[in-house]
Structures are given as C-alpha cells and as structure tokens.
Amino acid sequence: MNKNFSHLDEQGNAKMVDVGHKDHTERKAVAEGKVFVSKEVLEKISGKISGKSDESSKGGELSKGDVLAVSRVAGIQAAKKTAELIPLCHPLPLTSISVDFELESPAGKDNIQAGGEKSSERVEDRKESAIKIIATAKTVAQTGVEMEALTACSVAALTIYDMCKSVDKNMTITDISLIEKTGGQSEK
Amino acid sequence: MNKNFSHLDEQGNAKMVDVGHKDHTERKAVAEGKVFVSKEVLEKISGKISGKSDESSKGGELSKGDVLAVSRVAGIQAAKKTAELIPLCHPLPLTSISVDFELESPAGKDNIQAGGEKSSERVEDRKESAIKIIATAKTVAQTGVEMEALTACSVAALTIYDMCKSVDKNMTITDISLIEKTGGQSEK
Amino acid sequence: MNKNFSHLDEQGNAKMVDVGHKDHTERKAVAEGKVFVSKEVLEKISGKISGKSDESSKGGELSKGDVLAVSRVAGIQAAKKTAELIPLCHPLPLTSISVDFELESPAGKDNIQAGGEKSSERVEDRKESAIKIIATAKTVAQTGVEMEALTACSVAALTIYDMCKSVDKNMTITDISLIEKTGGQSEK
Amino acid sequence: MNKNFSHLDEQGNAKMVDVGHKDHTERKAVAEGKVFVSKEVLEKISGKISGKSDESSKGGELSKGDVLAVSRVAGIQAAKKTAELIPLCHPLPLTSISVDFELESPAGKDNIQAGGEKSSERVEDRKESAIKIIATAKTVAQTGVEMEALTACSVAALTIYDMCKSVDKNMTITDISLIEKTGGQSEK
Amino acid sequence: MNKNFSHLDEQGNAKMVDVGHKDHTERKAVAEGKVFVSKEVLEKISGKISGKSDESSKGGELSKGDVLAVSRVAGIQAAKKTAELIPLCHPLPLTSISVDFELESPAGKDNIQAGGEKSSERVEDRKESAIKIIATAKTVAQTGVEMEALTACSVAALTIYDMCKSVDKNMTITDISLIEKTGGQSEK
Amino acid sequence: MNKNFSHLDEQGNAKMVDVGHKDHTERKAVAEGKVFVSKEVLEKISGKISGKSDESSKGGELSKGDVLAVSRVAGIQAAKKTAELIPLCHPLPLTSISVDFELESPAGKDNIQAGGEKSSERVEDRKESAIKIIATAKTVAQTGVEMEALTACSVAALTIYDMCKSVDKNMTITDISLIEKTGGQSEK
Fold this sequence. Notes:
Six copies of one chain form a homohexamer. Chain A is α+β, with helices and mostly antiparallel strands. Chain A is 36% helix and 26% strand. Chain A has a four-stranded antiparallel sheet with strand order 2-3-1-4. In chain A, helix 3 runs antiparallel to helix 6. The longest helix of chain A is centred in the last third of the chain and has 19 residues. The radius of gyration of chain A is 19 Å and the shape is elongated. The two termini of chain A are 18 Å apart. Chains in contact: A-B, A-C, A-E, A-F, B-C, B-D, B-E, C-D, C-F, D-E, D-F, E-F. Chains C and F meet through loops of C and helix 3, strand 2 and strand 3 of F. Strand 4 of chain C pairs antiparallel with strand 4 of chain D.
C-alpha cells in the first residue's frame, strides 16, 4: 500500500536508485517468455532438436538449429547491454548468463491460449506452436539481475522473430515474466 | 510451403540478407504490446493521464507520468539500436520513431485473458489492468522496419517493468506483435 | 609545479592510469552547467515547473516538462557511457546518478555574464534566461566519478539544446564545472 | 512567436521528428567551445604546438600534443554516436568530421570573462588561458548536423578535462555554441 | 611516391576524409584470416563439419559447430560496429555481411609457416591446423567496405580464440588481409 | 585430452561460463601482433619516432605520429568494448590498459616470413617492414583479461590498416597472440 516507485523522487522525476550502501551478494534471476509461431516454423526449427533428421533431410534440417544458436547469442549479448537499454538500470558485472529453449507443439501441450480476440484468431493459424525461452542471469553485486534476465529473454525472442519472419508473418511474443529471483532483498 | 528462412544459407548458416539490389522506398511499421500490471500500478500511473489529479494529490500524481516519459525515451533509443541488438538486422536510417501508450483498466476492457494456467492465476492478482504500448517506425530504405517497431515496443515494456517493479512483482509483458506494415515487398 | 598529466607516459603517449592498487571507496561527484536560452524557451518549459499553468494552457504547458524529462534520461544514460566516450576513463560500476534542473529567469537572477564579446551580444537576445543542470554521480570504486558527473551534465545540456532548437537558434552551453568531489584521494 | 518544440507532439510527449519527406541535401555545421585551463596546463600543451620545444624539454614537451590528439579522436567518435546520446536525434550517415584546436593565452587575448561570481574568482586562478575547440560535421541527409558538431565539441572538451585534471582541478567548459550551419532549411 | 595518408591533414592531425562529393555506388570487399589452432581443437570443431560424427560421439561432436556459429554472429555484428571501433571510418549502411569458415588440417595443406622464430616453435605444437575465416561485406555508399570486412574477420577470429582457449592456450590469429575489393575508386 | 570447450554446455550450446564462485584477484595479460606494411608506410610513420626529422620535413614528419596516437586510442577503447564484441566474454572493470608500438625495418630484423605462398610474394613487396603492437590489460576480477589484451591489439592493428590504406593496399595483420598472462588460474 505504501509501496512507491523507487525510480521516481518525491517530485516524480526519474532517478537511478542509490545502491551504494547495499552489500555485494550473489544474485540470480530467471525469466521466461514465448514466441508463438506457425506449425511450419516449429517443424523447420525442431528438425535439429528432436533429432529426427534422417539422411535425406540432413542438409536442411541439421542447420535449422542456427535460428536458436543466433537467438541465444543475441540474448546473452543483450543481457550485457541491459544498463544501456533500460535507462535507470545499474551497470552490473554479470558472472553468468544462459539462454535455453523448449519447443512446444500442439501435441505436447494442450490448451495454450493467447490473450484477447485478435490473438485467438491467430491461434488457429499458428496451431498453438511455441518456442519457449528461458534466460538465467547471475551476478555478485549490490542489486538484482531480473532486468538482465528479462532483457535476454526479450531480445532472444525478437531475434527468433527476425529470423523466422520470412516464413511466418503472424508471430507473437508473449508471456515474458520473472520466474525466479534469489539473493539480495526484494527491492532493486 | 517453399518459404524459407531468408537469414540462413543453404547450409543453414546465419547470414545477413543482401538487400543491395532493392529500391529505397518509404517504409513504415507499427507494433504493439502490453504490460499487465497491478491495479495499484495503473492507478499511480494514470494519475496524470486521466487528468483526475486534484490539488491535494498533485505533487505525487502529476509526476507519475515520468514512468511513461522514460519508457518512451527508452523505446525510441532502442529502435535506433535494433541492428546492434538483432544480429542479422540491417542498419537503417530511421526517419521517424514514436511510442504511445494506452492505459487499460478492467472497467474499460472486458475479457482480457493471458495465456495459460500460470498466467490465469496472475490475472486475478493483476485485476486485468494493462499498459498498452504502440510503437511506430519509419524509414526510406531498402528493407523494412518491423524489427525496429517491435524492438521499441519490447524495450519500452521492459522499462515500464523496471520502473514499476518496486510496486508490483508480478508483471507480465505480453502480446507483442506487428500491427501494420507498409512499403516495400513483404520479405525483409 | 611537478604535477603531471597522469594520462600520458614519459614519452607523452596516452595511457589509462593503473588504479589496480587503489582501495574501493565510496566516491561522489557533482557537476553543474547551464544552457542559456531565450525568454520564450524558458517560459515554455517553466509552464510545468513554476506551476503557473491555468486550465486554458493546460494541454500545452503541462507537457513542456518533457523537455527536462528527456534531458534527464539522456544525462543518466550518458553517465553510464562515460568510459566509452572519454578514451582514458575507467569503466565504473555507478551506484547512483541523478540529474536536476533549476530555471533561472532575468527577474530571479541579476548579472549573468557569459564569456567574451560574441556572447555578450547574445545575452541581449537571450535576455539572460538559463536552464541550470546539476548532475550527481556515485560509485564504490577505485577511482572517482567526476567525469561521469560532467558527462551527464554535458549530454543533458546537449539534449535540451536539441529539443529547443526549433524555437531558439542561439543557445549556448556554458559554465560546465565540477562543484563537489568526495571520497578517494584527489587524483584519478 | 508560433514556433513550437518540434520534438514534442500536441500532448507534449517526446517524439522523433519525421524527416522522411525531406530532400537529401548536403549539410554542414560548425560548433565551437572552450575549456578554461590554468596557465600551467596551457604551457604544457602548447609545448608542441607553439614549436618552442628545445632539446632539454624534448621528452616532455613534444608528447604533450597527445592531449589534443586524444581529444580530437574522442570528438570524432562522439559525433558518430550523436543519435545514441541525444534521444530524439536521427541516425545520419556523416560524410566528414573534423575537430581543431586553438590555444588562447592571456597575452594573445584580452578580457576573457566567464559567467558569474564564482567563475570570476576562477579567472584569477586560471589566468584566462583557454583551449578553443572547433568541430565541423558534414552529411548528405534529410536533416542537419548541428547536434553532431556540438556533440563532437562537447566530448572533445570533456576529454581535455579528463586528461588535464591531474594538473588543474578548476577547469570550466564553456561557450559551446553553433557557429555556422548550411544546407537544408533551418528546422531539424 | 606522392601518395599520402588521407586520414591526416597537412599538419598531420587525424581527420575523417570528406566523402560527401563521391557517388553512391555498389561496393564489396572480401577479407580473410586464419586462427592457428591445436589439432585437438580442430578435431573437436570439425566433428560437425566433416560429417564424420557417428552415434557414439554424437552428443559431443554435433554441438561443436556452435563455436563457428557464435563466431559468425560475432563477426557479422562487429562489421556493423566498424565505424565505432575504427576512429576515422565512416558509418555505412551495410546491405550484406557474411562470414564463412574453412578448416585446414595438416593432411590437407602442406607447408604452413608462421612468421618468425617464436611462432615456428608453435607450429610444432599446433601441428599446422587452422581455421580460415572469409568475411564479405557489401554496401551502396560513398566509400568502400574493406574495413568492415577486415573487422568482421578479426572479431570472428577473436571469438574463436575465446571459445577455444580452454582447450588450446597457444593459438595465433594471423594473415588477416584484403582479398577482393570492387566498386568505387581505390581510395577510401 | 579431457579438456573441453568451457563456453559450450553438454549439448554444445553456447553459454557464458559462471565465474561467480571465483576470487577477485589481480590479473594481467599482454598480447602482441604485427601489421606488415610497405617500406614507404614505415618511413612515413617512423619520421617522428626515430627522431630523424630535420627542419625542412618538420611539418610533415612530426605529425605522422598521429597514426600511432589514433591507433593507441582505438586499441584502448576497444579493450573496454571486449564484452560487447566477443559474445561470451564477461564484462570486467579494467584497471589499466596500455598499447605500445615498435617499428621493425628490414635492416633491424632479418628473416621475417609470413605464412604461405601468397604471403611470401607479398614479403617482396613489403620489404619486410612491420609495425609491432603490444597491448597490456589489467583488472582485479573473477576472470582473466587475455581477450581484452587481444582485442586491443587487433583493433589497434585494424586502425593502422585504415589510416595507412591510402598509401599501401597490401598490408597484412598477423601473429596476434598472447605473450603473458598472470593472476588467477589458467582457465577463464
């Protein structure tokens, strides 16, 4: 109830919170998000991951994994740019970043619903296929790394979008949220 | 059916698409997305926008608008960094970027649903309040600006998250998608 | 007398001073500077700050504050880029940055003089109105943050210039200097 | 009288001006500024430039020119970062940037005065020595390059400050203004 | 004989060459370079490329390709940062960048010699295995892209070094040169 | 034999190594590399360094040193960008960076050979002149700075290339390697 925007002073002006008095402690945050993609995109990408590639499809399928490899690199690099992208974030010496993916096909996952009317039309088109992104950031610092994990997740998603948009023009990036946060107190 | 990932060569290796042969034409893209926030966050932010501020709340309410002002600046600056963030994007001379917001409260909007089981728990907590972000990018170039609009939208959303996380720890960034694209052909 | 440029070696070549042996201590620096603007610019901007806005001017005046909000964000972000902009600066984990403004009108301030002949002509034109910028940077590090405070101040001033140049083409950025420095020894 | 902030929309929100309809024309801008420095700093730096170096002082004097060489590089690189530093600036394909210096000693220049009471104390200390910076930027684009010239000038000044602050702790960066602008119309 | 450093003015000061008068033409540059690596590194990486992977080694071999995938992304992104890294380079709207690799084993290539005494010791250790990098950059601009191709090549090489240094501590990056340049005149 | 790529997980996916458990210790790395240049380039640059300049050539020769001054600044700034350029590098608070040069002429150095057939043709052309770059990076951190030293060296080399390419179109950057590494354990 008496919680306040820590990034605004009494006059409501933006400020970077002073964390100079806080202890340097180990901190970790995990964020996840999804890109809803067409069945076609999912099949092209899953060629590598599901390991179903046989000789005939090799040239093609094998390398589709590069979509995820490029997205992973983009997510890791973006985490390091968080303080540059988010105006009031503190620069942090990240000790670890990782970005992982899970492919979700309609068969393996029931009842995916995306928000609102417009999206539900899309669900038909997409046949409820999704690429799930899980980003983990760690540091030993005076403030937490949730924004770093969320930024890695968002930019990894944007990169998937960029690489797949020649195949699917109706993707949606969705459900980006913080899954886990440990270390430090809760405020940043 | 025969659509392919334009960002992968025949071996599946990442490449930046060659757009040197394309015409310089006017291009525009509009992306939108939402941040689901608690009722408390929405009320704090809407102080300025709804114009309901009376004298007594002035010091506080008025300035809450800075959350959106900072988010807008972050989105605009991020659009200019798109080619740095998304590995296979081309650097483009953006001629215009704008980021706008709409506040959605449960009263003004029925039936907001966010994807999946976990999220639906959150819906209760959030009381279906949301900040909608609309980002528009324009250029005169050889390739389109959908990634610029989507990046502006994503980073504006992350900035809202950052500035409101001391008040609400359960926000979700969702439904980021391309709303409009004009100019050029469809492939990038 | 025997002070030397610490950023040059014995041959006069540029080098980054080795601070590896220094203690990590709390350090703070405050810099300030001014942008001389026309009376018209000052009035447009002060609409919000002086609180003189009446109903009729609301739509217009209220929002002029965005000039300062955008300038503040630009200053804060520039402070984080100091080591990228100033070649021999060390990268520092800033713990806090803030940028504040004071509006100075001729009525409230006598005797403003700006350096030299050319500028004194301008003073007439500008009617001695100014926006004062105060930037504060803090860190816990092996070297001081005066360049971070000065950089925040300079880029905030440039941003004001950019946003007001459609109204006033004769602005001058002036009197950027270090006001306070605490923590560490005096050399960087 | 009816001039308006082109970087604010009707609601006063920040926006990047749409320049898509403008012609690509040659544009040039020249900005200048000064760093007031102590007589000692000026003498150390002018060793190279005035050509007064004799054998005995060679090791030392010759290399002092690196202060200006590093400042020049920093100014040139900063001009290329203008759109990253100033939130509403357009990214521009700069075709040329140059940064030049003039040393002003009390003998060669009478009556330098810096703004206000505090500064006039400093003048004594500084003995009215100054390093003048002249930055020129050119492009063929849809909008002007005054911010690029001003940014080059400001960052060159900050770099001089950084490199000389071990010798002089009372420098002031001052009188940064636009000297010349050609090409395009006057608004950006 | 009368060729001069185009990046220095008559006083020898650095400047960015003015290319405003040049035509916008298609330009292309190809650079290549090598990283000498141990036989062990080459074998680990070639697992994927040579296609020799059998079932037993699958988990390991298959994924080694990520070294090259990450290096490729790093090279492409670095090309876009050329003007930021090389002080006097012009910002260019790259229309295409690609980075390719060839693995060279002692069997397939005789007589590789690296410069000088110290290196020739290393040759023994390395058994003359190398990863060759070929980077191609294209633009339609007023100046050439050789630095973009060379920068892509260099940063791709540094990334290979980084990713393999836990296995081989004696790598050398070598023979980075321009292989092809077309479009425009020869000077930049 | 059981050494592994520390930047790949068990599936071969790229990851940033977790260094959160490591001690903060002083670390130092020295890298060196060479740019093979024509005799003409070497003579122009060595004007300053060898001190052979007589009065008549002063204006010209003296200032050629700016090639090295600009290269040095570029190398120092690049070291600070290492984590941005090399995807899996950790951001590190560098405490010191220096870049030095040695000019190697055929007279002073016998038997320089550059790798392979093609290069040996070039040796004739170049007359075995080289600019040697030595870059030193230091930090107090949880991981080493070899990539920072190698990056400084590579970008300093690229900058020499850029500044001399109007005089010599056949330069080669070569023999970039790690010369010394102290502090921490050997793996990064």
